[in-house]
Amino acid sequence: MGGGVSRLITLCFVCFQEPPQQILFHIHKYKYEFHVIIVGHCTKVPRNSNLENLRSGYLFPEISRHESEHLRRNPDASLIRLGIGDTTQPIPDTITLAMAEQVRGLSTIQGYRGYGAEQGNMPLRKAIAGKFYQDMGIKANEIFVSDGAQCDISRLQMLLGSNVTVAVQDPSFPAYIDSSVLVGQAGELEEETGKYGNIIYMNCGPENDFFPDLSTIPRTDIIFLCSPNNPTGHAASWQQLKQLVAFAKANGSIIVHDSAYAAYIRDGSPRSIFAIPGAKEVGLSLQVAIEISSFSKFAGFTGVRLGWTVVPEELLYSNGFPVIKDFNRIVCTCFNGASNIAQAGGLACLSTDGYQDLCKVIDYYMENAKILVDGFTSLGWKVYGGKNAPYIWVHFPGMSSWNVFAEILKKTNIVTIPGRGFGPAGEEYIRVSAFGQRQITLEALRRLNSFL
């Protein structure tokens, strides 16, 4: 094309707003060569506007994309993954044998089982109540067994609907915000701040002991709180949770408490929101809270998929209707119950031998955490977390968290998580996971020592 830049462009005219001929004219005007492939068919069905309002990509697949790109450029790189919090230690035999027995039973007339209760098998619900909620007023029928806490976050958002107001910790696990966007609670994304207009971001940094200053937080219908927190590793104290429960009661709010990492708490902090004492014979926490939890991180069930949600009978909507009845309807409509095989494993986790074996695995990860905390501290960086959770929150003052992530990946072949991915308050931080093999953790420190 006479003196112009010559390039080959492949176009897919699936859903352009302008007709193909008009687009081709624009390309021709700038003297580009082109050939056209027209594929697909545009329906008249509009895209869900809530999906259009999501940020470009969910954090963890985005990290995987960066990993893949790094390996494409450096095919011989020996990658160490201290980013996504996936467990690495084998599940103890006491637990896998129970699952294997369940599987073998499916091959027999006596052992075959089809559909189970959508809410979960009652022996497991009773075991969860006895192990984690003894003397807290929680009954087995208030526990809904699921395929994981992240799935339950979305089911709770479906339960709550688009008309509620929401507060989240900043930084926090991305699913709370993204699921709020999906159901239409969040409002528009403000590009300058990186925040959604209708979400209240509760700053949780070292200046306020990683817990929101409730005197500055306006009333919202729902308050999401993760303790121990992902990503900062902070476990809320008894006093902090008491303040939050009283705050929710005074405002008529519901707390959604994520306790997925509760088994890692070492300093005596409460492991459940329902451990907070209330007034008279009914605890205040039963009136204002829902709790979600998981076997993923404490039992290595990230691939097995098993969790639970507690919805107390005392928790009521503003019109007096029990929340548990609506959640039961959501579960029965949208879920056919957790795998019987996974539930057999869950029951074995809560046996005396199974739980003791799991505690040894948790100790292993927490020793990794101590090694990482000591290592980063010795390098002169300010480090948080790693004491009540398997995450280390490292501060790089004045630096972009994505830039720190990129430099560490480039120079050491170590994958971390940029703090900005957990919210605006995560800028200048990276999250480092202790879910690794011991020798790999030590090798990571050697590389970091050389780099930093």
UniProtKB/TrEMBL annotation:
GO terms for molecular function: pyridoxal phosphate binding; transaminase activity. InterPro entries: Aminotransferase_I/II_large (IPR004839), DapL/ALD1 (IPR019942), PyrdxlP-dep_Trfase (IPR015424), PyrdxlP-dep_Trfase_major (IPR015421), PyrdxlP-dep_Trfase_small (IPR015422). Its cofactor is pyridoxal 5'-phosphate. The lineage of its organism: Eukaryota, Viridiplantae, Streptophyta, Embryophyta, Tracheophyta. Belongs to the class-I pyridoxal-phosphate-dependent aminotransferase family. LL-diaminopimelate aminotransferase subfamily. GO terms for biological process: systemic acquired resistance, salicylic acid mediated signaling pathway. Signal peptide: none annotated. It comes from Gossypium darwinii. SUPFAM superfamilies: PLP-dependent transferases (SSF53383). Keywords: Aminotransferase, Pyridoxal phosphate, Transferase. CDD domains: AAT_like. The keyword Transferase applies. This is Aminotransferase class I/classII large domain-containing protein. The keyword Cytoplasm does not apply. Residues 79-437 form the Aminotransferase class I/classII large domain.
